[in-house]
Amino acid sequence: MAKKQSPHIFERLALIGIGLIGSSIARVAKRDNLVGHISVSARTQKSLDKAMELGIADSVSLDQKAAVKDADMVIICAPISAYQEIIEAIAPGLKPGAIVSDVGSVKQAVVRDLGSHIPEGIHLIPAHPVAGTEHSGPEAGFPELFTDRWCILTPPLGTDEKSIDAVEAFWKAAGSDVEIMDPGHHDQVMAMTSHLPHLIAYTIVGTATDLEKTLRNEVIKFSAGGFRDFTRIAASDPTMWRDVFLNNRDAVLEMLQRFSEDITALQRAIRWGEGDTLFELFSRTRDVRRGVIEAKQEKMYD
Amino acid sequence: MAKKQSPHIFERLALIGIGLIGSSIARVAKRDNLVGHISVSARTQKSLDKAMELGIADSVSLDQKAAVKDADMVIICAPISAYQEIIEAIAPGLKPGAIVSDVGSVKQAVVRDLGSHIPEGIHLIPAHPVAGTEHSGPEAGFPELFTDRWCILTPPLGTDEKSIDAVEAFWKAAGSDVEIMDPGHHDQVMAMTSHLPHLIAYTIVGTATDLEKTLRNEVIKFSAGGFRDFTRIAASDPTMWRDVFLNNRDAVLEMLQRFSEDITALQRAIRWGEGDTLFELFSRTRDVRRGVIEAKQEKMYD
Lengths: 302, 302
Prior knowledge:
The structure is a homodimer.
Chain A: E1 10-16, H1 20-31, E2 35-41, H2 45-53, E3 59-61, H3 64-67, E4 73-76, H4 83-90, E5 99-102, H5 108-115, E6 123-124, E7 127-129, E8 150-153, H6 161-173, E9 177-180, H7 183-209, H8 213-221, H9 227-233, H10 238-247, H11 249-271, H12 275-294
Parallel strand pairs in A: 1-2, 1-4, 2-3, 4-5, 5-6, 8-9
Antiparallel strand pairs in A: 7-8
Helix pairs in contact in A: 7-9, 7-11
């Protein structure tokens, strides 16, 4: 699959956005010599200066179109709400045969937003590296972020196979396991494994914030045993997550509805002292944990 | 506070139950020579044999009354639903001046269940070491479990100060920070920081289990990014947690009600595409995370 005969998987990589994910891509690409040149564009000169200072960019430009010039591979590493503007800016500057990819957590909306703007002869191969931390910004990245994590590709039907192979080779070289999936299916799976958990974590931390002040301070003080995990998840990038919920609305609402029904049933069981109902569920969920460990997802998102 | 002049904090410690918490207490007490003798009682001979084999018990007995004979400190390390039976069994065998404590996650119900059975001259000092893992049983324990964790004591008003000091000294020697609290207040704080997060984790993992089979398998396969954390929490001991919810009903239902209102508001915001509402909450929750890190609870429950 990987083009091992070539020294680089791509000669010229352009990254639009250099936050946690973008800078981690740049770091692993630099460390393992996966590309010949990294061109970076970002919204602020400060981020570009930081990228140069960190040695993870070979050239930088506030002008997105200039940044993608001659690039074989362009990866959009920005919040989904910025995609429309980005693709309109870069489309006229793309090299014939270039690949346009991204790292967004939602894929149907991406195919929709980018698809119609992709010029003839350009290959759109959306990607979702399922990896992250609660930290943001160029300094937050590290080259091992993608090691042993999934990267899901959702190329539209009929996409050039050689280009898909190249993107796959790139992510495998970055340490990921690669899976190809239908974008709608991706969005459903992620609604359950990632989007709903984040929504719940944000909610419960918000609920705690609204408590009477004394109680709130003690909740923070004694935040072991469950809540702490939620605060970590709920410290994730607000812009990114707003965009996720706005762009995966139907799947998130569907999963949220199922969750709400289930928690209402538990609420009733607690109110009426139905211990067996609680015990039965609590035993059942242990098996899922075993499945997760067997699926070797244990070390993900740490 | 600690009676450093004495070689042992208690000459004879009796543990009723030798699961994750009981065996961790035994391990740290052995390692740091905190007590002269550890007597263990458990429900099965198998657990007692295991305790002897692990070298964490000096004597064992299936007979709880026999196990507490001559003990200066008795710690009940069993699910709350077993407390009534245990206190009835051990009360006649307690040495005058002995301390009876426990490790339960709920404290008002404990004071209620144990309080009326405590003979004259015996000191009831309920305790809650806020520490744990998702693993259960005598083999799951380790002596560092309580290091830098909170241990909350909820002695009834008028409890013998010297006995409280001794329990505090014991937990400090085990590595914990000790706080004394009203049992009702303890239950409210824990409802938010621990009980509600566990309930939510159990629920969402249950919701995932009920998905159509293909989707369910993929949820397990791609369980990074949030869901994985929930599966770990939802793998905790079912009996213990059933008892927590049955015994802290009012506080849990109150916090759950607040949470439900908040998530319903978010559901509406997602449905109507109100990005600002989402962004505002997601930004606010970041501050709570900072508070948690400053409160040094970061390493708890790992």
